Amino acid sequence: MRRRRYLPILSIITVLIASMPVSSLAWYDETHLAIAKAAGYYKWYNAAGADMAKLKAGKIESNNHYCNNGRATAVTPEMVLDQIDAYDTVEESGHIYGAIIASLRNYIEKKKEGKYGEYHMAFCAHYVGDLSMPLHNTAYDEFNKKHHAEIDGIINDEVLDNIDKIRVYTITINSEQDLAEQVARIANLSKELGYKLEDENRLITKEEAYTQISHSASLIKAILTYSEEQMSKQRIPSE
Ligand SMILES: [Zn+2]
């Protein structure tokens, strides 16, 4: 009979855990750093900073890190572009896709003004990292809550020693529309994998995790090239 006394406490703890914001979860720090390093981002060591910002800014930042898509939702370039205005707002279904483009815009704008701007690119590189985490692209359902942290950490302890397992491929971006298409492509791959894991009731394999983060690293590399081109375009007429 005594055991029953613990049940209310257990229930309270369960409710507390279940109501913890998704903000406490994302690929862990070393995984974000490895993705940015593989992409050739010279300030790769800033790529975990966006998770630090969540600690101070709460939902205004944390809602930038995911998008709760139902199974039937196909992420389209239009949906990506529609989320841009939601950047840095509280909107709990999440708007990571728009956050990628909005943070890049901020970076290019600040650089063109001759300002530092680098933290905006660090945010962008982080969001592109989260883009390949399958459960950042699916509904925050029971499976997501239960397995999110384990999947976040699946390769974290080893990944900085295995940068060569991240396979960077060529993506060409010439416009925001191109970027929106690439974001949508990776979002859909990630979402499909997320629901596959749920259907098979299993964690992501390490192999699958390296494949996922390879998409992120490849997109960051393309974004870095694109942003350089945008900034040099601006400079030429003024010379
Ligand atoms: Zn994150």
Describe this structure in words.
The chain has one domain: P1 Nuclease (Orthogonal Bundle), CATH 1.10.575. It has helices at about 5-20, 30-40, 50-55, 60, 75-80, 95-110, 120-130, 140-150, 175-200, 205-239. Helix 2 packs across helix 7 (about 120-130). The termini are far apart. The radius of gyration is 19 Å and the shape is globular. It has about 240 residues and is mainly α. The longest helix has about 35 residues, at about 205-239. Bound molecules: zinc ion. Zinc ion binds near residues 50, 51, 65, 126 and 130. Zinc ion binds near residues 26, 50, 51, 65 and 130.
Fold topology:
Blueprint: H1 6-18, H2 29-38, H3 49-57, H4 59-62, H5 77-82, H6 96-112, H7 118-131, H8 142-152, H9 176-200, H10 206-238
Helix pairs in contact: 2-7, 2-10, 6-7, 6-10, 7-10, 9-10
The structure holds zinc ion (ZN).
Structural descriptors:
single chain; 239 residues; mainly alpha; P1 Nuclease; globular; binds zinc ion
Question: Quick summary of this structure?
Answer:
The protein is mainly α and 239 residues long.
